[in-house]
Amino acid sequence: VLKNTLDWVSRPVPDEPPLAAFKGKVVTLISASPGALGGLRGLVHVRAILGNIGCIVLPDQQAVSKASEAFNDTGGLKDEAMQKRIDGLGAQLAQFLARLA
């Protein structure tokens, strides 16, 4: 579904260069799945696709495994170390964007 969405939104509008909507956009990758790897294998492919369409993909990423068990009733992560790693990714993204501004 994600790949199909990227294909559709990458279609240029008239008088727009190809992939203009993606060029230079900064991306950080996080996945979650019910499996033991948390979608880690999929991130490899998403990273390649986003890089090929002109996104700047930050090098660090995080996968949340056993997602059906990973979150508490309020939607937060039960594992504090995992939450810190994800917060760190957000901070890295914010710092990178601030440098571009």
In DSSP terms (H or I, runs of 4 or more residues), the helix count works out at 4
CATH topology: Rossmann fold
At CATH level 2, the architecture is: 3-Layer(aba) Sandwich
| CATH class wording | Alpha Beta
Query: Tell me about the biggest sheet?
Result: 2 strands, parallel
- Low-pLDDT parts are none
- CATH H-level superfamily title: Flavodoxin domain
Mean of pLDDT = 94
- Please tally the β strands and state the result: 2
Structural class: alpha+beta
Give the overall silhouette.
globular
Distance between the termini: 32 Å
**Helix and strand string, N-terminal first?**
HEHEHH
Helix content: 40-55%
Strand order of the largest sheet: 1-2
Radius of gyration: 16 Å
Tell me the strand percentage band: 15-25%
- Count of separate structural domains: 1
